[in-house]
Amino acid sequence: MFCYQCEQTAKGSGCTRIGVCGKQPDVAALQDLLVYALQGFSQVAVEARKNHVASGGEGAFTCRALFSTLTNVNFDAARFVPMLNEVVERRESLKAALAAKGVSPAWHEAARLVPAADMAALVPQGEAVGIENDPETDADIKSLKQTVIYGLKGVAAYADHAEILGQENPALYEAVEGLLADTLRTDMDLGAWVQRALDCGNANIMAMELLDAANTGTYGHPVPTEVPLGATQGKAILVSGHDLKDLDMLLQQTEGTGINIYTHGEMLPCHGYPELKKHEHFHGHYGTAWQNQLKEFAAFPGAILMTTNCIQKPAESYLGNIFTTGLVGWPGAAHITENGSGKDFSAVIEKALAMPGFAQDEDKGSVMVGFGHNAVLGVADTVIDAVKAGDIRHFFLVAGCDGARPGRNYYTEFVEKVPEDCMVLTLACGKFRFFDKKLGDIGGIPRLLDVGQCNDAYSAVKIATALAEAFDCGINDLPLSLVLSWYEQKAVAILLSLLALGVKDIRLGPSLPAFITPNVLNFLVEKYDLKPISTPDEDLKAILG
Ligand code: FSO
Ligand code: SF4
Hints:
By secondary structure, the protein is of the alpha/beta class. Helix content is 44%, strand content 12%.
């Protein structure tokens, strides 16, 4: 196997024997085969659009399948087989409709792929189309091509979350399929690939905007909300991942059962949504970021529901208590499927009722969430006045993923050292490095504002754009600095979006992507002033002068 799509890749260069994330070689091969099949499928889908052949949900399917290959989503080899077969079924039906219109171009090999009949033969088939066997010889083009593929995995994740809540945009699907089809091309120069990477960033803005509309349209705009960090006596279910609808369904199905619902990791911001927080048994938040789940899940005295990434190999002690749903999967963990009219979480509920629950109340303080674009822009006048009066000197967006590798305490130290006349906006699971710090307020506005999940990066973009408008300047002229941490491919998509918006001077850590070549990095440094993090002191000094 060879995989270098995430930040924790082995030796900073690539996982070759087994993934640091726990991905086995067979899963790696099946993911590569699925991506290859989707590249071919996209070539056919692009042709179908051009020829007005009716779409039967190809875009949504492509996103769903692509999302399943994102880091820490699905580790269950068997789940990839029906997806591969569905790619081929859908592809052949589009081809037949095209042929009926007299359109039968020369399809790329990927668009003619026939998956082998059994697992033993599928794995070598996947290995043959892995990154190492990419016929592309130009290292920089290969680097940008992989950047586009990884960015598209992130776009697909956002599009899938939005689709689950009924929000779709044909222009977004068209962009995803067009870009994925282009990744099969061998006739594009470096400039064209740079453009594709920026196009991927723009597609991601569309996806994030759609997801924002889906989340806020369904559950209301998040409002500032205090979330208890301890526990309350009684039976309990812990929900992790990112999916709001799964949480909503679970909250409804546990109403009146006496079970309290807790969030873990990226589900924390869900407490700010009016239509979710209205449930009295939606108690609070338990634990921190995804990489601490082995310890935190093992100690949780109830059932656990994993709705999306990031799942880690469950310890034996809680394998029987953890349930997966949606695209997330782990071999041996019980999986809850969609049954046509929703999901039936009774197995999770039964498990929670059979488990001890919390014997007593545990008070561990609280944190504030709910500072999405609507809440922050609601106090925009106060913020703008505070900036003009010199009460707020600078804004820092300290955002992105958390992870297991060392070096991430940079972000804790950075936030601790941000001067008191500066605000910190944060989003995604990297916030758990400092989310419970009491940073006080400036003129009644908390200095630490939790904008939401990584899925809410659009909120940060909207806040920055609105501030730039208010000050009649560009985003790069604002007293705003972006200090980002990345781990998986949603972060790649967000970075490409920021570059597409022309945002400069981003600091990125804890290490740079292994799939970026020195030449591509030089280009990013020269054109966008992108830089790796150094030390909190040096970076703060460089930013604040
Ligand atoms: Fe974190 Fe994982 Fe949300 Fe990522 S839980 S690391 S960017 O997959 O999704 O922030
Ligand atoms: Fe390695 Fe990351 Fe790929 Fe997992 S997703 S195999 S850790 S590079």
